[in-house]
Structures are given as structure tokens and as C-alpha cells.
Write a structure and sequence with these properties.
single chain; alpha/beta; Leucine-rich repeat, LRR (right-handed beta-alpha superhelix); 28-stranded mixed β-sheet; 9-stranded parallel β-sheet; about 10% helix; about 20% strand; elongated; binds 2-acetamido-2-deoxy-beta-D-glucopyranose
Amino acid sequence: MMRCFVLSFTLFFLLILHTPSSTSSSLLPLCNHHDNSNLLYFKNSFPIDNSLYRDGRCSSYSNKIASWKNGTDCCHWDGVTCDTSSGHVIGLDLSCSMLEGPFDPNSTLFHLTHLQQLNLAFNDFHNSPIHPQIGDLVNLSHLNLSSSSFSGDIPSTISHLSKLLSLDLSDDYELRLDESTWSKIIANTTNLKELVLDLIDMSSIKETSLSLLMNFSSSLLSLSLRNTGLHGKFPSGILALPNLQELRLSKNEELKGELPKSNNWSTPLRILDLTGTAFSGQIPDSIGHLKSLNQLFLWYCKFDGMIPLSLWNLTQLTELHLSRNTLHGEIPSLLSNLKHLTILDLSYNSFGGQLPSSLLDLTQLSVLDISSNLFIGPIPSKNATLSKLHTLDLHNNSINGTIPDWCYSLTSLTLLDLSMNQLTGPISKFYIGLQNLINLDLSNNKIHGKIPNWFRDNLLHTWKDLVFLDLSFNKLQGDLPIPPYGIEVFSVTNNNFTGHISSTFCNASSLDVLILSHNHLSGTIPQCLLGASPFLSILDLQVNNFHGSIPTNFSQGSELQTIKLNHNQLEGVLPKSLASCTQLEVLDVAENNIEDVFPNWLQTLPALQVLSLRANKFHGTITTSFNAKHPFPKLRIFDVSNNKFGGPLPTSLFENFQGMKELSDSTHHRPALSYMNSSFSKYTDSVVVIIKGQSMELVRILTIFTTIDLSNNMFNGEIPHVIGELTSLIGLNLSHNQISGIIPQTLGNLTSLEWLDLSWNQLEGEIPVSLTNLNFLAVLNLSENHLEGMIPTGKQFNTFENDSYIGNPMLCGFPLSKSCKNDEEQPPSSILHQKEKPLFGWKSVAAGYGCGMVFGMILGRLFIKTARPLWLARLLCGYTY
Ligand SMILES: *[C@@H]1O[C@H](CO)[C@@H](O)[C@H](O)[C@H]1NC(C)=O
Ligand SMILES: *[C@@H]1O[C@H](CO)[C@@H](O)[C@H](O)[C@H]1NC(C)=O
Ligand SMILES: *[C@@H]1O[C@H](CO)[C@@H](O)[C@H](O)[C@H]1NC(C)=O
Ligand SMILES: *[C@@H]1O[C@H](CO)[C@@H](O)[C@H](O)[C@H]1NC(C)=O
Ligand SMILES: *[C@@H]1O[C@H](CO)[C@@H](O)[C@H](O)[C@H]1NC(C)=O
Ligand SMILES: *[C@@H]1O[C@H](CO)[C@@H](O)[C@H](O)[C@H]1NC(C)=O
Ligand SMILES: *[C@@H]1O[C@H](CO)[C@@H](O)[C@H](O)[C@H]1NC(C)=O
Ligand SMILES: *[C@@H]1O[C@H](CO)[C@@H](O)[C@H](O)[C@H]1NC(C)=O
Ligand SMILES: *[C@@H]1O[C@H](CO)[C@@H](O)[C@H](O)[C@H]1NC(C)=O
Ligand SMILES: *[C@@H]1O[C@H](CO)[C@@H](O)[C@H](O)[C@H]1NC(C)=O
């Protein structure tokens, strides 16, 4: 009796010990033995390798099949669910299981025909097709193959899965779904509640088959077809399906549609995402029926009109994204109804009026972006407790008044962009603990006064994450703020800062962009600046009063693309180490006191496009050195004017400027207009060029802008014929030198030329008739030479006036009053009568680009400054001056 008790006690104890891990495997094997071995064969078709690639898609990865062992009960394996009575495997969740390798078409997985739920998401099946055998698993209600690197056509047998409630094939971006499979799925899986096909290629599906979606009728709860290439008109009836809770159609640029105007909406709708579609029309009043709506994403669509008042009744909204439409109207104070709002993005529309102060009642806001609208008036200044706000972007409006203190006291703020408004006043003296700032942009306002000490202290000690600070285009004065360690972009251009660059600047070792231009800074440029910032790509110190020499420690591996030191009082020589800056595109040292010979060692820089040495004390001859095959291969703007260069014109350079030859066609079609762009998109490379004695700042440099300016030096000898090969030249200025000989015929090959100045030289002979080929020529100055004979006529030459030729006593013919001896021709009685012919070139420019652009950029200012025939501009562009 006692033994019996002990035995049964032991048994009981054992039983407890084994629960729950292997009770049934040792005592009551549950798993169907066919399913058991099918699973083991499936396991064996994948390598066991814990070192497999894992990415951030899954919160955790685990190699579930590693626990599958022969001889144990499969119903207790990781990821396996059995039917408790039959022992059949009915659920298999191998998501995030690091399965990797091709999927066998004869996989024993397809024998598990009792399966109801199969999830293989987030594995890597090496672009295997989804095999047609998937259609054998007819008991499936849930199939999830998301993000598993399946590819090819989705097999039509998938439509055999008529019991499906949920189908997710998303993010297998090499999968295709064709028209007939689509129709079959819709016809047979009539109980589907959830369909997720994001990123699958569905572009072959026609508009007519899109409307089949209506067949899902009452079952559908969630439909997600993002970025699938769908096009045509989306059936708006979908938005009336009675149970629909989520509809996501974003990033289908050619998918059109409208929101239903009738009250016939899917009232349970919680999420509506139409981002980046071609949905258009107005947001109807009826949207007010969506009482459950949490998230409304309508950005990058084509909606217009005003926001209906009813929208402000959707009190459950947490996210409202209306950015980048053409919506207008004012934002009513009703806005404060949306108490749960965390994201309000109205940016890039035409909303106007004043900002309602009820905006500040939205205490849950984390993102407030109303940038690029037409808002006016002050930033509301009642006490705000937006303690969760991390992004406040009001840039590009017409907001005025001062920056209220609350903007500086938002504890969670990481981005504050108030740029491009009319804000005035000094930066507040008062602040509370703005600590997490990453991006601070107050540029393009009218903020004046000194930078307060709390701001300087925060810069250096508190804002440890700050990477972007832009205070440019204000009226700030006093000492420069010091850029903190860790900052990448620091711009204070166009203020009234004084003082010098202290050596503490050199602690900012992550600087990528440093722009101190257009201030009243003085002192020297500290040598440590370059050594300290290996990532520096833009160094812009132009238009200040810096003196001393240029730092010499430019180093190998430098990332500098733009160096602008022009318009200072720098002296000494150009440091040879500049040749290490192999990414350099713009080097501008104009208007300093640099005393050096021509830096032909810069010729190896492969990317250099703009070189300006204007107005310094450079001297000697300009030669290339022998070791470079193509010196200055990309150079497009070459300005050495106003120096003391002498000797012959640099023929060897003209022969080699590849960047000025690229465009050679006589059809007057130019490449698409584009601007030089820099690593920092907000920065535009500008350069000053002198045209007809007027300096003109090209605030953005067109990549077709190609000029050579050698004026005001002491060059002598003849103009080399090879200059005619620089066929993309737009401007050529050789004036004020001692150049002799004739004007070469080949200049007539420079068919892009818009201004040509050869004045104040000793040129002789006749003006070549070939110059009449220059259909774009707007400015011609040949004055003060020894030219003789008849001035050519026709085309642009009918538009030049006396001042193009004065000081050449032996020239005759139109427009000079002196007629040529055998001149039988009548000078054109009226230019207007000839407008058709000579204007061929101009017209095609205007027609090709639209007037605003080209005339605005290159020619508009030229016209105004040179008072060239304005009728021409009016004729072409309807300009009125
Ligand atoms: C499992 O083990 C049994 C007995 O050792 C063996 O016969 C069977 O082939 C094994 N199954 C698999 C799938 O390896
Ligand atoms: C799949 O099975 C069939 C028939 O049993 C066989 O012919 C085929 O080679 C197998 N395919 C693979 C990839 O094993
Ligand atoms: C589907 O599942 C049921 C219940 O488990 C089963 O009776 C039936 O045989 C299964 N269908 C197929 C084709 O295996
Ligand atoms: C629809 O589903 C049933 C049941 O699985 C199947 O027999 C039939 O072939 C399917 N039809 C299509 C067109 O796939
Ligand atoms: C598919 O599985 C993944 C991974 O478990 C999951 O994140 C996703 O929500 C599933 N899809 C559906 C529609 O349930
Ligand atoms: C907002 O809701 C209130 C209460 O349900 C209702 O009286 C009012 O008419 C609604 N306003 C709009 C513009 O739909
Ligand atoms: C804002 O709050 C501060 C301190 O909490 C208080 O001194 C000030 O009077 C308040 N201003 C307004 C307009 O309520
Ligand atoms: C702000 O602008 C509005 C008009 O846009 C003007 O009426 C108002 O006086 C301005 N306020 C300030 C402080 O400049
Ligand atoms: C710039 O600051 C100086 C004093 O630092 C002042 O005299 C001058 O008026 C200021 N210029 C402008 C345009 O504010
Ligand atoms: C350049 O001009 C000269 C003289 O006008 C002409 O003979 C030559 O063919 C032209 N070359 C090209 C490439 O157009």
C-alpha cells in the first residue's frame, strides 16, 4: 500500500515536472505523424544558421525551426498550432524566423492541407516564385507572405483559397499580380476581411477590373494597395463599404478619384491614406460623417478648395496631413475641437489669414507644420504648454511680430523653423530649457539686435544635438555666435555681425557648411579652421573684411566643393595645397590683394567649374603646365580680369577647355536648364560676373553659363583662332588689353555668345561677316580699336548702336553716320520692319524656355542695364518696364 502510494506519488510528480513542455509527447502524443514528418522535411530544406542576416523589420528574430526535433511532439514546437482533437497542424507562424534559401516547389509544407493560418513573413526565400501548390492549402483563412523575397507572377491557383479572411503579400516588390488572377481572387475569396498587396506590381490591371473591388461588399475591413502602380479611376464606392476601417492607396501617382459627396461613407473608417495619388476635387462636407476617423493622409494629392467646417468636428483625429495640395481659406478656431491631434501638417498650400490662438490648445501636438502658406499676422502669444511638440515649422509665410517666448520654452522641440517670414525684434532675452534642438532656422526675417548670452550659452553647452543653425538674412549684429561641436550647417550670411573668427570655431569639427558671408567680420582666417573640419564642403566667407593670408593647410581627402573668399582684403599667395581639394567646383578669390602668378597647378582639379581671380595682383603669363592632358577639364567660368597678367593670350588653355566645348550645335536648341547644385540643398552657388562694366550677381549658376573674362590686364599678341572652338561660350571679354591683329573669322562659330567685348585694344582689319551668325548676341563692344571697313549688316547687327563701334575712325556704315564710299545699301530705315528675320535666335530661346526664365536669369538684367532695344523683349515676352 505504501509502495503503491510512493509509486503513484512519483508518477504524479513526474507528470508535474514534465508539464507543460512534454506531457503529451511522453504520454499522449497529439501531433498527426504525417504532419510531424512533413514539418521535419520542411525544416531540413533550410540550413540552420544563426548568423543569418537580420534587419530592423522585426522587433525580434528567432530561429523557430531550431526547436523542431524528431521524436518530440510537433504540437509543442515553436510556431506550430495543432487542432486539439485531430492533432492536425492548423497554424504555422514562422514570421521573423531567419529562414533563408530557395523555396522548394515540392516542399512538404504543401502537404499540410489542414493549415488555416500560415505566416512566413520577414524571411528571405531568395526571389523564389510563389509555387502554384499554394492553392492546395484550401483550408487557409490567413496567408501572410509579406517581406519574404518572393518574386514573379502570383499563381492563379491562389484563388482556390476561397476561405481566406486575410491575405498579405506585401513588400515582395518583385511580385506581379495580373489581371486574370486579380479577377479570380476577387471572385472566389468573397469573405476576405483584410487584403494587403503593398508594393506588388499591379500596373497591368485595368480600370475596369479595379471596379471588381466592389464585389468584396460587406466583408472588407482593411484594404492596402500602396505603391502598386494602379492607375485609372478608383471606384469611390469602396469608400461606402459598410465595414471598411482602413483604406491605404498611397504612392499610386496615376490613380485618380474623388471623395464621395453624398453621406454614403464607410462610417467605421479609421484610416484613410491617399498620399501621393491623383485624387482631386474638394474635400466634401460629408467627410464630417467619419466620426471614427483617426488618421487622414491626403498629402501630395490634387485637392483644392477650402477645408469644410465639418472636418473640425472629427474629434477622434490624431493625424491630419493635408500638405501639398492647393487648398485655401482660413483655419477656424474650431481647430481646438481636435484635442487628440498629434500631427497637423497643412504645409505647401495656400491657406491664409491669421493663425488662430486656439492652435495652442492642441496640447497633444508633436508636429505642427504650416510652412509655405500665406499666413499673416503674429504667432499667437498666449501661454502654450505644447510639451510634446518636437517639430514646429512655420517657414515661408508672412508671419510678423516678434517670436513669442513659448517658442523657446518647448521642452521636446527638435526642429524650429521660422524662416522666410517678417518676424522682427531681437531674439528674446528670456528662455526656459529648450534642450533637444537639432535644427534651428530663423533665416530670412527682420530679426535685429545682438545674440543674447543665453542663446550663446545654449549653443555651446545645452543644444548638444544641434546640427543645423541658420540665422542668415536678418539684421543681427555684435559678435558672431560660436558654432558648437557637432554642428554640421552654420550660416549667418547677410547680417551685420562684427568681430573676428575666434579659434574656438575650430572645435566645431563636424562642420559641413560654414557660411559667414556678407557681414562686417574682420581679422584673419584661423589656420585651425580647415584642419578641424574634415567634412567641410562649403566655405563661404565672401564680402567681409578679412585680412592676412589664406590658410595653407588644405589637405588630401578634403571634401570642399565651394570656397568663396572673394571681396575681402586677403593677401599673400594662393596656397598650393588647394590642389588637394579634388572635389572643388567653385573657387572664388576675387577682389582681394593676392599677389601671385597664375595658379596653373589648379589645372588638375577634375571638378573645378568656376575660377575667379578677378581684381587681385596676379601677374606674369598664363600658361598650362606640361603634365596635364586636359587642363581645367570642367571649367565654365574663367575670370582673371583686373589683374596684371601679360604676355600672349593663353592659347593652350583655350585649346583645352573641354567644359566650354560640349555644346556645339547650330540648331539653337539648348540642353534643359539646370543649376549647379551643392551638397547642401539650401545653398546656391552664386558668382559675380562683370558684364558691360556692371557687376551682376548670378545668384544661381546655370550649368550652361560659360564665360571667359580676361579684361583689364596687359595681354598682347593676337586672338588665337582656337577660341572659335569654345562653342558653348555665352560671354567673352578681352577688353582693355593690348591685343593686336585681326578679329578671327572663327569667332563666328561661337553661336551661343550673348556678349562680346573686345574694346580698348589694338585690333585692326575688318569686322568679320561671320559674326552675323551670332544669333544670341545682345551686347557687342568693339570700340576703341583700329578696325576699318564696312560694319556687317543683318540679323543682330541691325540692333547694335554707335557705342559698339566708337573710337574706330576707319569704320563705316550703319549705325555710324559715316557711310562707306561705295555704299549703295540703305541703312535699315526702321528696325521694326525687320523684326521677323534677325530675331530668329532670340525667338527660339524665348519659345524654348518660356520668357520668364531666360530673360529673368540671363538677359532681363542685361536688357535693363544696357537699355538694349526694349521693344524686342516686349515683343517676345510681353514685358512691360
Ligand atoms: C524520425 O526518426 C525516425 C526514427 O528514428 C525515422 O524513422 C524518421 O525517418 C525520422 N524522420 C525524419 C523526418 O527525419
Ligand atoms: C518535384 O517532384 C517532381 C515529381 O516528383 C520531380 O519531377 C521534380 O524534379 C521535383 N522538383 C524538385 C525541384 O525537386
Ligand atoms: C480542410 O480541413 C478540414 C478540417 O480539418 C478537413 O476535414 C479537410 O479534409 C481539409 N481539406 C483538405 C483539402 O485537406
Ligand atoms: C474557387 O474555390 C473553390 C474551392 O476551393 C475551387 O474549387 C475553385 O476552383 C475556385 N475557383 C477559382 C476560379 O479559383
Ligand atoms: C503579416 O505578418 C507580419 C509579421 O508578423 C505582420 O507584421 C503583419 O501585420 C502581418 N500582416 C497581416 C495582414 O496581419
Ligand atoms: C458638428 O457637430 C455638431 C454636434 O454634433 C453639430 O451640431 C454641427 O452641425 C456639426 N458641424 C458641422 C459643420 O458639421
Ligand atoms: C504666462 O506664464 C507666465 C509664467 O507661467 C506668467 O507669468 C504670465 O503671466 C503668463 N502669461 C499669460 C499671457 O498668461
Ligand atoms: C503684421 O501684418 C499685418 C498685415 O499683414 C499688419 O496689419 C500688422 O500691422 C503687422 N504687424 C506688425 C507688428 O508689423
Ligand atoms: C551695423 O552695425 C553697426 C554697428 O555695429 C551700425 O553702426 C550699423 O548701422 C549697422 N548697419 C545696419 C545696416 O544695421
Ligand atoms: C569655324 O569658322 C571657320 C571660319 O568661319 C569655318 O571655316 C569653320 O568651318 C568653322 N568650324 C566649325 C566647326 O564650325
